[in-house]
Amino acid sequence: MLSVSTSRGHLLYKLCSSSSPHNNHPSSLLPIPKDSMAPCIDTFRTCKPQLSHKDDSRFCYMNLFRPVHFPSRAPITNSLDGGDVWLKMLEEAKSDVEQEPILSSYYHASITSHPSLGSALANILSVKLSTLTLPSNTLFEMFISVLEESPEMVESVKQDLVAAKERDPACLSYVHCFLSFKGFLACQAHRIAHKLWSQDRKILALLIQNRVSEAFAVDIHPGAKIGKGILLDHATAVVIGETAVVGDNVSILHGVTLGGTGKQCGDRHPKIGDGVLIGAGTCILGNITIGEGAKIGSGSVVLKDVPPRTTAVGNPARPIGGKENRRMVDKVPGLRMDQTSYLTEWSDYVI
């Protein structure tokens, strides 16, 4: 006798029979383990269940949100391993599963079953961005092919993970960022889309942009150029236009727009230097330059160039200290994440 129950997208099958445990099962079922409390989880690539033989009770969970078959392909080369960050992620995943065993199948499918950081990234992006008509295995094949061609992209992924871990006090671990930070995931999806855009595969690039916008509420045109060591903190409502350029070690908070003025064509978006910090809710409009190591206060509207190592704030934004006596930033704002120290320069600032 076969009983079926459903729970959050999974089917639970139980074979209630006193017959021999070697009876033939319906062809639609995976082999069923004997441990009554240990689910048989289809593993990421092989779909081989984990079996136990403690008693005659039989259960099987089938994941309905991810196809159970993946096309075979050659193992990913070591150039995608991501070095120490990937090894640290494996250690963190093991520790997390020891603390929360209920997450073992999720961590196995997302991290520990993969041979490299590139493979794990292609997997999680394909799961997050898939739809009923755009299956995850199709996206996985596309993503991993781009990553295999561009090992330098995985180095940028590693730098972005380090940026989140070092700059965001809410980030518990590399694994936490990798699985849960939509700003990080949106940035990595953009890297793949930008590569496709540069190869004149614009339809695919724009498709990825659209799915990232829908899934993460982050809209980055695939033509935009983004450096490494990027932190998109919270990331909701971040918009980056087609001809924008963002340097290395830049930190951008939620609600930031790097947009055009609406009156120009061609090269019409901002150029952000290395080490810049852009506060929440800021609009930087037009083909202007934010100099290296500059800081833009939250809620500012920037319409003109900001010199290097300068703090600008306001609507329209002005440099702290004015043009002649600009207060120079002595440390890299994009790394320090200090968003309020410039307030001490405002003699009339009171509460």
Index terms:
alpha/beta, Hexapep_transf_CS, six-stranded mixed β-sheet, globular, serine O-acetyltransferase activity, Serine_acetyltransferase, acyltransferase, 351 residues, five-stranded parallel β-sheet, 32% helix
Distance separating the two termini: 72 Å
What share of residues is helical? 25-40%
Largest sheet: 6 strands, mixed
Report the portion of residues in β strands: 15-25%
Q: How many β-strand runs?
A: 18
What characteristic shape results from the CA principal axes?
globular
Low-confidence stretches: 1-82
Instruction: Round the mean pLDDT to the nearest integer and report it.
Output: 80
Order of helices and strands: EEEHHHHHHHHEEEEEEEEEEEEEEEH
Class by SSE composition? alpha/beta
Spatial order of strands in the largest sheet: 6-9-12-15-17-18
